Amino acid sequence: MNATPSSTANPLREGLSSRPLPQPCSVIIFGASGDLTYRKLIPALYNIAADGDLPAALSVVGFARREKSDETFRTELKEALGKFSRSGLNEEVWSSFHDRVFYHRSEFGDADGYKSLAARLDQLDEERGTRGNRLFYLSVAPSEFEGILNHLADAGLNRTREGSWARVIVEKPFGTDLPSAEALNTVVNRVFSEKDTYRIDHYLGKETAQNIMVLRFANAIFEPIWNNRYIDHVQITAAEPLGVEQRGPYYESSGALRDMVQNHLLQLLCLTAMEPPTDLGADSVRDEKVKVVRSLRPMSAEDVALNVVRGQYTAGAIAGKEVKAYRDEDRVNPQSMTETYVALKANIDNWRWEGVPFYIRMGKRLPKSGTEIAVQFKCAPSVLFNKPSEPLGPNVLVFRIQPDEGISLRMQCKMPGAAVRIEPVKMDFHYGTSFGKASPEAYERLLLDAMAGDATLFARRDEVECAWRFCDHIEHAWHQQANPPPVAFYPSGSWGPKEADDLLARDGRTWRRM
Amino acid sequence: MPATFDPSRLGTPVEIGQIGRELKNLWDTGDSAPTRASLMNFAIYCRSTEALAENTELVAEFTRNHACRALIVCVLRDAPEPRASAWINAHCHLSRAGAKQVCCEQISFLLEGKIKGRLTNIVFSNLDSDLPLYFWWQGDLSENLNPHLWSWIDRLIVDSLCWHNPKAQFERLRASLSATKARLTLRDLNWTRSLYLRQALSQIFDHPENLPHLREVTQFAITSSPEHRSTALLLLGWLAAQLGWDWKSTAPIVFTDAQGKEISAELREAEGATLSGLTLASANARFALHRDPGSHYLHAALDLPGGHRYHHVFPAGPDEIVDLLDEEISRASTDRIYLRALTVIAPLL
Fold it and tell me: How many A-B residue pairs are in contact by the CB < 8 A criterion?
């Protein structure tokens, strides 16, 4: 019997592999009438509760403009949970969860709404033991950030009493370029310190994205070959058959580069290219990621013309059905030059990656849905088997981020028979095959982390700004040069414009067949 | 082979020396192209042909979540003639994506009569290479669990609930554990039965305002079904060990803490869930976990100073043996805490 309770450690926690419960807190969702709240945020909180991982003292307060009561809000959420919760809806869990959920009606710009919110949160602290801890989730358009944050500050909601905390989660898009991101960061950091700011990128909450670091740094065989001596190039692809659906106006102001590349795909690039961090602390990991983004070679207008392809889908067919061109989509400018596809060649100027291009492509209305990172190794020497007359394919290590999460390795193998005939074979690891259980949703992990104060899987200010700096060079060349590179059109249902193939063909390479 | 034994559920009978070849044929002759998956060797030791059949059904279910090569070895030492028989089959399930058949192989053995070292040899010669060996020993431990076999096992799973003489079995286990240099970890499914309750209680005291009350506890009570008294005992041992309590008396059960404060405990029995209740009380706070019959959740009721009352739910955890196994295999944890709890309850066994 060597365990005695100290005043700070919970002696019952020893040896239990479940994570400690986060501290009691109130989660306040701005934009509580929005789709994200019903489809992702509340189902995530509910599923965390069903797993027993929410503190008993927890309140969820929806803040939105529409008039409704606590009870109406709860009824709507219950209905949404029936549709969107991965574990379904259990009455026992719901009966315990629902009375922690509240609705606070206010305009975002109404100062009185924040004062009454503060009073309500104080009351919940008293009634429910939430100890003055607050997690504000801004699930609103970026144009609303500044107003909401200023009102939070005016109402004193960003300040905490001793031993308590106040944090803010900010949804993407975090800015539309470097100046706007800097301005937003300044606004946010005027109200919340950087350590209390959590910029969410749900890709980082995905199991496979987290596994990149594990695969690289928990296995001795990969790191020695993870450099320009053995790796020829890396391809990062995010493909989706969907068009812009109802998001025409948003997409018109955004485009594929801002919507996907600046955040999700550059995050994947960082995880692939980063140096091993000194430890798994949030800042240690993010320090290494920032170094990668900082090392991305900036592109001049000439570089953009040469190394970046912007494409837009035309009419075509997806899954056997005719689909219209981007310019014919609802609320899209018929002369739009917005890119729905982007392919680019990025170079990381550091010792490890000197001479190893990272090809990134993202496209809508492509034949298949999938996000992956393909690390293509250099070919075997041209002796014995890999003769110029009979070249063999390279080894390729693929991280499938979604769907069908997993990892595969392509290698060469002798076909059975007297002759030496070599064919590529694939070793394949599927999460779904090896681990029968479904992974939690990314938002579950990220919300729990934010409640627990772990920012490892959230983007830091310098990461975001460096990523914008890189993308702004491209946007600038597209939109502010006298002779911008043309938009390359591709039929829906194809793998993108020919120019994207040419981008790799110039380097003697081809896009991986997904 | 017992006359009543129907081996048809075990799959295809094979010569023991030809198992590797027959398995290869099994995969080569499939109608479609299933994916064979294996992350571990999962061996089960049992002592009746009925158990052999039951374990086949259990493995079929188990492989939904845990890709493995399953070895089920039934030993009938009292059979008049020494004999060894084997069968192979595959358990296939649709993957989560729903498009792919994922299959795991099972090799079943019926070993009759007394031949020394046969179990060890059978296990060693049929392991999937480079994968860990998880060994579920059903029933009392015997000399068949010898040091050679012991040294190859990565995780030994037992269920102390089924032991006829728990005290003797625990002593045997302790002796074997201290004698071995292997990196084996011991898992007791009877300990797993209390896992969710331990987790829930621990999570209650993660709350910084609740934690101080843990040191003030003066009474606690555990309610279990009559047949799960040993499960309740392990839970009692865990609490006492983790909170640094020492025995004062075993009947009635009274502990003392480091400051000499007395803590009285009560083991109650009630029909229903394995563990249906746990209450900790101090002079001014009370923490109760309760599970209603048929419910999958533990309801926590917290009465704190100042009239503050909280209600919370936690998952109650599995009851079925296959779910307990599933839970056990899914987590990596140490047996240190378990052994510590075991030391506490030795006087009550």
Answer: 140
Q: List chain A residues with CB under 8 Å of B334.
A: 15
Report the distance separating Cα B289 and Cα B291, nearest Å.
7
Q: Which residues of B touch A438 (CB under 8 A)?
A: 96
CB-based contacts of A98-101 (< 8 A; 24+ apart in sequence): A98/A74, A100/A58, A100/A59, A100/A60, A100/A128, A101/A42, A101/A59, A101/A60, A101/A61, A101/A62, A101/A70, A101/A73, A101/A74, A101/A77
Per the residue annotation, which of A151, A202, A233, A264 is the catalytic one? A264
B254 Cα to chain A: minimum distance (Å): 16
Q: What are the pLDDT tens digits along chain A (514 aa)?
A: 334 444 568 999 888 866 778 888 999 999 999 889 999 999 999 999 998 888 888 999 999 999 999 999 999 999 999 998 888 899 989 998 998 999 999 999 999 999 999 999 999 998 888 889 999 999 988 888 889 999 999 999 998 888 899 999 998 888 889 999 999 999 999 999 999 999 998 888 888 888 899 999 999 999 999 999 999 999 999 999 999 888 888 899 889 999 999 999 999 999 999 999 999 888 999 999 999 999 999 999 999 999 999 999 999 888 778 899 999 999 999 999 999 999 999 999 999 999 999 999 999 999 988 999 999 999 888 777 777 777 778 899 999 888 878 889 998 888 777 777 787 888 888 777 777 666 778 899 999 999 999 999 999 999 999 999 999 999 999 987 778 889 999 999 999 999 999 999 999 999 998 8
Best residue in A433, A437, A451 for a mutation probing chain B (most B CBs within 10 Å): A433
Which among A4, A55, A434 is the nearest to B67, CB-wise?
A: A434
What ipTM goes with this model?
A: 0.86
Q: What is the nearest CA distance from B217 to chain A, expressed in angstroms?
A: 12
Q: Are A143 and A152 in contact (CB under 8 A)?
A: no
Interface contact B37-A433, CB threshold 8 A: yes
In angstroms, the CA A47 to CA A228 distance is: 43
Tokens read off for A227 = 């450099």
Other Cβ atoms within 10 Å of B55 Cβ, number: 23
The pTM (predicted TM-score) of the whole model is 0.82
- The answer to whether residue A264 is catalytic is yes
Q: Which residue has the tokens 């007359």?
A: A389
CA pair distance B30, B9, nearest whole angstrom: 18
Query: By C-alpha distance, which of A462, A453, A463 is closest to A195?
Result: A453
Nearby residues of A260 by Cβ (< 8 Å), 6 or more positions away = A238, A362
Chain A residue with minimum CA distance to B63: A436
Give the DSSP H/E element, type plus range, for residue A241.
Answer: none
